[in-house]
Amino acid sequence: MASSRFDSEQYTSEAFVESAGAVLFRLSTQEICLLRTLKSNEYVLAKGRRNCGETRHEAATREILEETGFPCRLLPLNFSTRAPPAVETEQLDDQPRYQIGICEPFTLQLRHLAAGQVKLIWWYIAAVNEDQPSREDLQEKDKFTVEFFNYTEVLEKLTFQMDRDLVTKAIEIITHTHRE
C-alpha cells in the first residue's frame, strides 16, 4: 500500500473544530474592532466555532455580531490566493493568483490543542454595517468589552503576535484594494 508523497495529517471529526472570524473594520474612521477579554485582560479578534450546517461566511458574521454587537458584512477584496477563480475557463496549476473582488478567507490558522486535536480558524475581512444600529443586546458583555483603534494603535494593543501579523495583512489588503 502506498503512502502519500505529501507530509500529511488526518483528523476525524472528534479531533478537530472549525472556527471563523474576521478583522472588523469601521471604514468611515479607519479603525479596527478588538475585544478585551474580561477574564484575562487580553486584546483579541472576534471569532468562534462554526455550527453544524452553517457556512464559514455565516459563522464569521454571526460570531462578530454575538461578540461585538455590530452587524457586519464580509468584504469583497483584491488579494492573492491559491483558490481557483469562480469560473475556470482552463485547467490551472496550483499556485497563487491575484483575484479581484473575492470574499474568501485571507488567512487560515491551525492551532494544536490537546494531543491529537486541532482547531482550524478561517479569517475574513469585514466591515461594520454603519447604517444599522448596533445590537448591544446580543453582545457578550459578560466576557468582553468592545473597543475600536486606529491602524497604529490596534497593532500595539493586540496581545498576541500572530494576531498582529494577521491584522497587518488585513490592513495591507484593504488599503491596496481601496487604492485600485
Question: What would your notes on this structure say?
Answer:
The protein has 180 residues and is an alpha+beta fold. The protein is built from 3 helices and 10 strands, in the order ββββαββββββαα. The protein has helices spanning 56-68, 151-157, 161-179; strands at residues 16-26, 31-37, 43-44, 47-49, 72-74, 77-81, 97-102, 107-112, 118-128, 144-150. Strands 1, 2, 3, 4, 5, 8, 9 and 10 form an 8-stranded mixed sheet that branches. Helix 2 runs antiparallel to helix 3 (161-179). The termini are far apart. The model has no long low-confidence stretch (mean pLDDT 93).
Task: Note the main attributes of this structure.
10 strands, single chain, alpha+beta, 180 residues, eight-stranded mixed sheet, 3 helices, globular, two-stranded antiparallel sheet
Extract low-pLDDT stretches: none
Count the strands? 10
Beta fraction: 25-35%
**Assembly state here?**
single chain
Major sheet summary line: 8 strands, mixed
Order of helices and strands: EEEEHEEEEEEHH
Structural class: alpha+beta
What's the end-to-end separation, in Å?
Answer: 51 Å
Secondary structure blueprint with pairings:
Layout: E1 16-26, E2 31-37, E3 43-44, E4 47-49, H1 56-68, E5 72-74, E6 77-81, E7 97-102, E8 107-112, E9 118-128, E10 144-150, H2 151-157, H3 161-179
Parallel strand pairs: 1-9
Antiparallel strand pairs: 1-2, 1-4, 2-3, 2-10, 5-9, 6-7, 8-9
Short description:
The protein has 180 residues and is an alpha+beta fold. 22% of the residues lie in helices and 34% in strands. The longest helix has 19 residues.
